Amino acid sequence: MKLYYNISKLACVNGHKAKKGRDMSDIGYITDGAFVTDKDKFIFAGKRDKAFELYPDAEKIDLKNKAVIPGFTDSHTHLVFGGYRVSEFMMRLEGRSYMEIMQAGGGIKSTTQATRMLSAEQMAEKTLPFVNELLSYGVTTLEIKSGYGLDKETELRQLLSMKILEEMTPIRIVKTYMGAHALPDEFKNNPSGYIRYICEEVLPAVKEQGIAKYCDVFCEKNVFSKEESAIIFDRAKGLGLGLKIHADEIEDGGTTAFGVRYGCTSTDHLLHVSDEGIEALAFGETVATLLPITAFSLKEKYAPARRLIDKGAAVAIATDCNPGSCFSDSIPLLIALSSLNMGMTFEEIICSLTLNGAAAVGNAESFGSIQEGKYADFLVLKWEDPAFLNYHICGNGV
Prior knowledge:
By secondary structure, the chain is α/β, with parallel strands linked by helices. Helix content is about 40%, strand content about 20%. The chain is built from 16 helices and 13 strands. The chain has helices spanning about 50-55, 85-95, 100-105, 110-115, 120-135, 150-170, 190-210, 225-240, 255-260, 275-285, 290-300, 305-310, 330-340, 345-355, 355-360, 390; strands at about 1-10, 30-40, 40-45, 60-70, 70-75, 140-145, 170-180, 215-220, 240-245, 265-270, 285-290, 315, 380. The strands form 2 sheets. An 8-stranded parallel β-sheet has the order 5-6-7-8-9-10-11-12. β8 (about 215-220), α8 (about 225-240) and β9 (about 240-245) form a beta-alpha-beta unit. The radius of gyration is 21 Å and the shape is globular. The mean pLDDT is about 95.
């Protein structure tokens, strides 16, 4: 049993589900705080004097008047891949759009060939430096999606590589199958055939492997329609997988509201979310996961974080680190863009990266806050005030 004390500011972010709207600002600051862990769980969080009174025999650890917050959850990444796409980044700088590059044979499919050549062990080894860097930024839970194999064998290897990675690092990894990321060349003129292939061959194999928690779909014009997504979702739900959706990234297609109706744990991107989509999120339990580094990288407008929160939605933020549209795993940059370009308050940002991030991967019952019964993931900061994470622009304050 360990008692951590001499904490200038302890941000507990208490809760067992995502905070919505104005409640996101309530992150439960305690001055001169302390907390106690037993094995791998919190058993107390509160004032220092109370902790010393209740747990006099615990090992005492002095945190030297630094601030403490819960561990971060990066709830949307595509970190397991085989090939880089630096040339596409240069093309975007010259004015080509993401969809133009994708339709010209670039984009997701350009990574597929390189990914198919790697073993699960090679994928894990290639991804390990990114995972370790995220850990240095304070990420204790990480979601990774497949989707760069687009065939059964490679998708299963991608998922297996995530399990291998989890054994190599302290980070907890939530694994998501995303075969519906793009149409592979083998089904170039047969989208319905690819949907059948996913439903009849790949999803059952993913379920049998027993690794993936979620199924995600890129539901967008010229990618997968709502009707196609519904077929995949129905099959995934029938197999016991949770649902996620890439929604309203390129244009308003009504996919956010569609994702809420389907019971998706999160709807992600939302650069062009409609008023109907925002209203659906405000009244539903689905988390809106916003990815501002992607908008920054693509030079697109940002998701309407302020409008979502003011209307009562639950918002999370994540890096979306991937080899194409967003080659960045920088949590400090994520914090800066969320504040300066999306208008979020510091407290909303912390909530989005902790409790709401955990909720976006279905973990809010067990992670995302410093409170009794939850797993003891916490960050000791370099500063006395957590707000230095925001104030020290793009500095790593962990």
